Amino acid sequence: MADQDPQRPPKQLDPHELTQQFEQLLRTRRLNALADRGRPRHPAQSSPYPTPTPSRQSSHRGPHPPPRPAQNNAPALPSYSSLRNMPKVPSPPQDDRSLRFRSLLIGLSFKPTHYENPGLLDEALSVIPLDRIYGEAEDESQLLQAKAASIDPNAKPEWGYQDCVIRALLRWFKRIFFSFVNNPPCPVCAAPTVALGMTTPTPEERARSATRVELYRCSASECRAFERFPRYGDVWTLLQTRRGRCGEWADCFSMLCRAVGGRVRWVWNAEDHVWTEVYSEQQKRWIHVDACEEAWDNPRLYAEGWGKKMSYCIAFSADGATDVTRRYVRDAAKHGADRNRSPEEVLVWITDEIKKLRRENLSKEDRRRVIYEDHREEKELRGYVVQALAAEIGRINLSGQPTVSSGEEQKLPERASGTQEWREARGEAGNRSPHNDQPPREGH
Q1: 246 among known catalytic residues
Q2: pTM for the whole thing?
Q3: Residue of 107, 188, 165, 161 lying closest to 354 (CA atoms)
């Protein structure tokens, strides 16, 4: 047989094939680990004592038989390597840090319950131009149906009509209804203002869920008037003020999505950002939506576009809470931050606790539906991990050296909302940000 040509380029690996091989490897290792845990070990291997030689005294049937080492009957403890890929067993919080994290998440979980208030829903519908929204949604839905039919008569469109309603609402909300606040203008002369720091909320501001108030002063020397910027958490108030930053945008937009019939989640990020997720009946999954950036189904935006390192992304809805960090951080080694607020088993226990709290009054049919959605979403999140590993392996050729990027990878946009200085201070100005390894300095 002729020798192989040393000049022949190495064979390129197929990412899809690698994904299937990796999933099969994980299944095989898990089955082997379960089999090892259930298989009894031979006494000679598990006992640290030498095997005694038989004698007349040892075979004597007396009232006190000789003691036997307890290790002979004890089940063998599995090694760490066999437990590493096993499912996490929920564990209640014990230490102070975990208890504080639980209290924080329990408090945040009440946010989406406000979106179920019938009076607020009616108020939200009154500010939405429904004719415009539904008209744009109908046009886009028909266009998507025609596009799918041109490829295959039996093909389904990428997005359904309800998805198109949310997309039309997103465009209107970003471009017309809500405004982003950097430094509020002077209320007297409309000149730019300078930030002075935080001040105490008034009783009226507290009544509207403003726990923080920013204080500004007019930059004009002949004016020097003061301006307060309460960070309202009350959705009804936001429907009147129609301004704010990430927190106000996500809160108000989530409420409007709920008003037009969407199932919504309010997603909290530990590194000081919030956004929305909307459930797509067409694709049977939760869709990332960021009203500040007019972003739709672009979950890699923050880590790979903004250069933001993230630790926790927890999605809260009227049905519970879910850790969705894997959807937004595909490469934990490159874009992930330390997850040190609690052990992973404790976080699973906390989210399960919130789910039980939110679902205790659901009907049996609705409870079965959301449990099925939980399983499907967990499969989706595990798939992101497998895809990331397969892509990393695919970038390495057979010689063990990383391949040169072809430049075909999607380039994600940097953050558009906020001033450049504000984005850099928060570590959200893309890979060029000098502060992208530092925690944010301001609240969302």
Answers
A1: yes
A2: 0.75
A3: 107
